[in-house]
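Title: Comparing notes on inverse folding

I've been comparing how different people in this forum approach sequence design from structure. To keep things fair, I'm posting one structure and asking everyone to reply with a full sequence. Here's the target:
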């Protein structure tokens, strides 16, 4: 029988490694596994149904990969050392020298830097396109285009990409689609169900949920996911057992956290929208947002828990940051605590200034990741910081 989302979050992943009645999966803090004889090691190579060396596989990595795969409706998942290594493994699954990638122009800065400054050195070319403009982006498809990469709700300006439509067009051209579902999580949407080939997560964010783990996950179906595993092992980007264990622990409360954070974020967005010191609010839950209807239809009135906004007087940006008390300034998102970040000088600082300005990533832009605190306290802290002199 198919379980509900919360049940799968709590009980997901195979539990065969639980020993001595342990309620939770023990941490297999070992770099290697022993064999009693050559037959046993040979059986590992033939059937792969046990573990040999942690870089090549470990019960804690498996537990996290399988649990996220179950939530995403994938067949299997691979836990990696960070969100970036998950993205790299997903990209290398589909492209090699001479291939071309299409990437949504508004994307996490680390992803665009990887494409522009690293993969370009190996003859992999990327064109950045606006996936909200179908006519223009579909013109950028070439015969060498093998892959399209996008997030669902973009970072930091929170546009909603119509993945269904993007997949449809990509499929018609034999292009694979990798979706970064970090912001939305499978609680809001499951891109594999609508035709994406691989889904990646920075599990550092909502999967872990407590700002205490750096991890990534790639999920999908065979044979692609086997190739992801091979790349992760060969490039040495497997996840450590303890980090995997933390990721699995965080995952158990994903539904509870998302429910509260999404609800808090909607209230915070409405508060900011009415605030005299705020110029613009970017949040798909606001009816004025250009993708509000798509988001409502698709996510069922949950819009994620990141709200971006610009302040009216951007020369006061540092005073506003100094004015936060409950809300901390840190270049991350998704934890249980509310966090603000400054995209211009952190996540997107390596973009050219022209590109940042064109995209709307200005000095006055603040990205707020709304936590699980009482919403009145978050709002009070925002109001104090915005009125700071
Ligand atoms: C949407 C998104 N994808 C990927 C990453 C990279 O994840 P990590 O920092 O775990 O490598 C981030 C980091 O902020 C992110 O926001």
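Reply #1:
Here's my take.
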């Amino acid at each position: 029988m198919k379980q509900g989302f919360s049940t799968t979050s709590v009980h997901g992943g195979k539990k065969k490694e639980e020993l001595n009645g342990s309620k939770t999966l023990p941490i297999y803090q070992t770099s290697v596994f022993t064999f009693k004889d050559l037959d046993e090691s040979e059986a590992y190579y033939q059937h792969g149904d046990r573990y040999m060396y942690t870089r090549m596989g470990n019960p804690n990595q498996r537990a996290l990969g399988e649990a996220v795969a179950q939530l995403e409706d994938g067949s299997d998942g691979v836990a990696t050392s960070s969100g970036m290594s998950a993205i790299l493994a997903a990209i290398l699954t589909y492209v090699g020298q001479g291939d071309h990638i299409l990437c949504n122009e508004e994307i996490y800065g680390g992803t665009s830097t990887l494409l522009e400054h690293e993969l370009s050195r190996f003859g992999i070319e990327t064109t950045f396109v606006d996936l909200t403009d179908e006519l223009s982006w579909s013109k950028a498809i070439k015969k060498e285009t093998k892959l399209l990469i996008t997030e669902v709700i973009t970072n930091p300006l929170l546009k909603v990409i119509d993945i269904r439509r993007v997949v449809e067009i990509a499929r018609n051209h034999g292009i694979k689609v990798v979706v970064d579902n970090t912001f939305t999580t499978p609680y809001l949407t499951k891109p594999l169900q609508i035709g994406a080939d691989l889904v990646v997560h920075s599990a550092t964010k909502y999967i872990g949920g407590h700002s205490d783990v750096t991890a990534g996950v790639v999920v999908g179906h065979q044979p692609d996911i086997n190739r992801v595993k091979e790349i992760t092992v060969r490039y040495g980007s497997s996840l450590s057992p303890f980090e995997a264990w933390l990721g699995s622990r965080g995952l158990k409360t994903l539904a509870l956290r998302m429910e509260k954070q999404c609800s808090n974020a909607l209230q915070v967005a409405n508060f900011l929208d009415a605030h005299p010191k705020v110029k613009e609010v970017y949040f798909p839950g606001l009816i004025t947002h250009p993708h509000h209807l798509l988001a409502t239809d698709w996510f069922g009135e949950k819009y994620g828990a990141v709200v971006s906004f610009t302040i009216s007087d951007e020369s006061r940006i540092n005073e506003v940051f100094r004015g936060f008390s409950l809300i901390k300034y840190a270049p991350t998102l998704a934890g249980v605590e509310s966090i603000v970040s400054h995209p211009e000088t952190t996540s997107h600082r390596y973009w050219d200034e022209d590109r940042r300005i064109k995209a709307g990533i200005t000095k006055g832009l603040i990205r707020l990741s709304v936590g699980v605190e009482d919403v009145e306290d978050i709002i009070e802290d925002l109001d104090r910081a915005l009125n700071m002199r």
